[in-house]
Specification:
Blueprint (H helix, E strand, L loop, with lengths): L1 H10 L9 H15 L12 H14 L3 H15 L7 H4 L1 H13 L1 H7 L5 H21 L2 H17 L1 H20 L2 H6 L1
Helix pairs in contact: 1-4, 1-6, 2-3, 3-4, 4-7, 4-8, 8-9, 8-10
Amino acid sequence: LAAVVALLLRLINLGHAPLAEAEAREALAVWRFVQAAPGAAPLQAVSPLWFALTSFAFAMFGSGEFMARLWPALAGSALVLMPLTFRRELGRGAALAASGLLAVSPVLLAASRTADGATLAALSLWLIVVGWRWFADRDDGRGLVLMGAALGMGLADGPRFFSAVAAGLFAWVVVVLARPETVRDVR
C-alpha cells in the first residue's frame, strides 16, 4: 500500500511543471541524442544511467517533462520499500511505519520528481545492500549477481553515487573508531 501511494504521489502531474534549468539541460542532451540533431553540440549528461534510461523512454514514447522525470519517479517509488530490508532489526511495525513515512516524505517526493540521477543512485545503493543481505543470509550466488548489477548501475549513475559511497565509507570509519567491537559484530 505504501508503494502504491508513493507511486501515485510521484506520477500524478509529473509532467505538469516545466523543467528547471538543470533538468532542461539534461533533457536537451537526451533529446539531441535521440533526434540525432545534425550540427548540434553534444552535451554531456551528469548521470549516464539517467541519460540511457531517458533516451530509451524518449525514443519509445516521445519527449516531454513526464518522460524526463519518469525513471527518477519510479526509482523513488521503489525506495519506499527500503525499510523492509531492515525489518529484522527494526521490527515489522517500525519497518512498515518507516515505509509509510517515506511514501509521503517531501524530500524523497521532491527528489523523485526531479529529472536527474539522485534517486537512481540511492536505488543502486539500496540494491547493493539487498544483494549483500541476500548473499549473507542464504549463501546464494544470486545475491552477488544483484550486488554486481547494482554496483554497475551505481557506477553508471555517476558522481552522486560516488559521493554517497564516500559518505558511507566515512560514516563506517567513524563508527569503527567510536566503537571498535562493531567490526566483530558485523563479522
